[in-house]
Amino acid sequence: MLSVKARARAAVVALMVLFVGVVVTQMVVSDKLQSGHARRADRLEAARDANVAVLQHMTDAETGVRGFQLSGDKAFLDPYDKGRAGAFTALDEVTTESTDPTVLRRLVDERAAASRWLYAYAYPIVNAGVADPRFARTARGKQLFDDIRITNAAVDAAIHAEQQRVAAADRRLSWLAQVLFALLAVGFLGVVLLFASFGRRLLLAPLEHMRETLQRLAAGELSARAVPAGPAEMRAVTGTLNRLAAETERLLTADVARAARTDLRQAVSVALRDNRDPVVTARQVAALVSDALGADAVHGQVSVDATNGIKVRWPANAPSLSARVVRDILDGAPGVVLDVPHVEGAVAVPLGGDADCPPGLLYVVRHDRPEWSADERRLLATLAREVDHAVRQQRLQYRQARLINELRVLDERKDAFVATVTHELRTPLTSILGYTEMLADGDGGELSTMQQRGVTAILRNAHRLHETVSDLLLLDRANNTVGAGAVRVDLSAVTATVHAEFEPVARGREVTLTGTAEPVWVDGDAGQLERVLRNLLDNAMKFTGSGGEVTYGLCARDGRAVLTVTDTGIGIPEGDLAGLFTPFHRAANAMDQAVQGSGLGLAIVRNIVTEHGGSVTVSSRLAHGSTFTVSLPLVPAPLPA
Predict the structure, then answer these.
(1) pLDDT given at position 216
(2) What is the pairing mode between strands 512-517 and 549-557?
């Protein structure tokens, strides 16, 4: 017995063959009918056109004869000859195209009428060769030509009647073909209905039962199963459906368990992010793990630092872990779930430590179900990673707080040291400067040349030390923004003042000092802003050799006051640019060339510019020079008083 698949395939093939046969038959028959109809219609239309041509040719011949009869001009005989020959050729064409007896009889009459006109009228006149306008012969010719017209019309009517008969016959054939095709379509439909009935009995009823089963499954009735029925193939499909339903029930059950585990992970994560007492948080996490996994006891052990350790157990009356169990757990790889030796149903995860903190552990035991599934082990490993991550964060926060406190203490000690040193230095420096200046002025008597050089050196270095102490005091003050004490400052006037101060220095060092300054106004401390330009020009002079150039420029750009100082000096190594504005920082090439300086000037520039709400940047090429750019908030010029 054929299977359902084989029978269905055979039915489909039969339907396709039948359908193709009907379609091909219809196409072939329709094509033949249409081509036959077109061929007959064209033939009769050609016969009708040829009959019209007969009358036209005879009319041309008659016109030529009458013209010759009246005038004797032989030029009229040319259309006569052509018309006479063309008329009989057209008569032969009509005879060829039509097979109807009536048409052929009418053609015989038309040919006889044309012959009578030629022999009784045309030939005598043409053969005479002279004009003969006698009325009797003309009337006779007209009567004979009227016979030609009558017989021509009779032929046309006969051909038209034949066309109507042929068209009617073609319509009957077309109708018969349509009836035939309709019968074939009815037969095809019957075969389709037969196959449909067969399919419903073998396929649709079992499929409907499976659809109802699927609806029950979709509604949540996971225990619904289909009853096998129908052919072997349908019973196999039903069995597959039942297995799919069972697998779906298993997966949904597993998904519910997975969702519960996800909820557990989220609950543990929330608890670990809570900033409450770490011991309370640890107990809450142990309780969550115990409830979710059905554990009899949960133990946790972590360390935030070398001295602060947290140990919890759930429930509170659970027995403590022995030293042997703890040692066995900590011997394992951190983050890997392992079975605890000598304890049935116990698993644990070692937690990592570091140089300051000993490692920890997460221990879970379950006596009624000692076997732990792979999903449960993965869940326990995930929870251990969450706990380990939270502990590491806690360690980082603790160490960060400790480091911040240590830095604060160091900063306070630094402030106290700088204040003490500067105070202790300023008092003796004042005395040294005062008495040295008195000696230099000759208050203690005239000095020898050697004594004068010594006093001058002491005075010069005392002034350098005094400037260094002043720079330290300036750096040590708080970085506050310029507030109520700020005034409107004309930076072009500041640049003019500093330029006049450095022009003699530039000439003494054989350095060209040039600059341009637009009228630019800012809010701030004029003295501190002078110090910025003074430090920048001093650095430029210091690192530019004889014959070099130092230029500055001041302009307004995009709502900012922009001051640039450019030199053609030794430049700055790229590795020193990042720390250039750090106190006491000196470039490597400056130290190599023994250029004097404390390394505080640019740090002071940055502090002053920052206090004024601005910024300072540098660009440099080694051995080509450097450019420092200061940008400050621009303000409108004050109104005239």
Answers:
(1) 83
(2) parallel
Gap between the Cα atoms of 586 and 313, Å rounded? 60
Number of alpha helices (DSSP H) and beta strands (DSSP E) in the chain: 15, 12
Question: Among candidates 541, 550, 526, 531, which has minimal Cα distance to 467?
Answer: 531
Report H helices in 350-480.
Answer: 374-441, 449-476
Q: Tokens standing for 81?
A: 């000859």
Over residues 173-197, mean pLDDT? 80
**Tokens describing residue 552:** 């500055």
Sign of CA dihedral 68, 73, 78, 79: negative
**Cross-strand bridge partners of residue 524:** 487
User: Are residues 466 and 433 in contact, defined by beta-carbon separation less than 8 angstroms?
Assistant: yes
For the cut 50, the answer to whether the pLDDT of residue 478 exceeds it is: no
- pLDDT, the chain, mean: 82
Is residue 3's pLDDT more than 60? Answer: no
Angle at 461 between CA 455 and CA 464, to 5 degrees: 145
Stronger pLDDT, 249 or 635, i.e. the higher one = 635
104-113, 339-348, 532-541, range with greatest mean pLDDT: 532-541
Q: How far apart are CA 334 and CA 351, in angstroms?
A: 5
What CA–CA distance (Å, rounded) separates 276 from 137?
A: 143
DSSP string, 126-179: HHH-S----HHHHHHHHHHHHHHHHHHHHHHHHHHHHHHHHHHHHHHHHHHHHH
Q: Name the DSSP letter for residue 76.
A: G
pLDDT in tens, 265-285: 666 666 666 666 777 777 878
609's enclosing H/E stretch is helix 601-611
pLDDT digits 0-9 by tens, 207-228:
777 788 888 878 878 788 888 8
Count of positions (residues) in the chain: 641
Q: Which residues have C-beta within 8 Å of that of residue 184, sequence separation ≥ 6?
A: 22, 25, 26
Return the pLDDT at 521.
96
Environment class of residue 556 by beta-carbon count within 10 Å: exposed (0-12), middle (13-18) or buried (19+)? middle
For the residues 433-459, what does the mean pLDDT come to? 79
What is the spatial distance between Cα 152 and Cα 417, in angstroms, rounded to a whole number? 142
CA–CA separation, 233 and 204 (whole Å): 13
How far is it, in rounded angstroms, from Cα 545 to Cα 403? 46
Element (H, E) at 603: helix 601-611
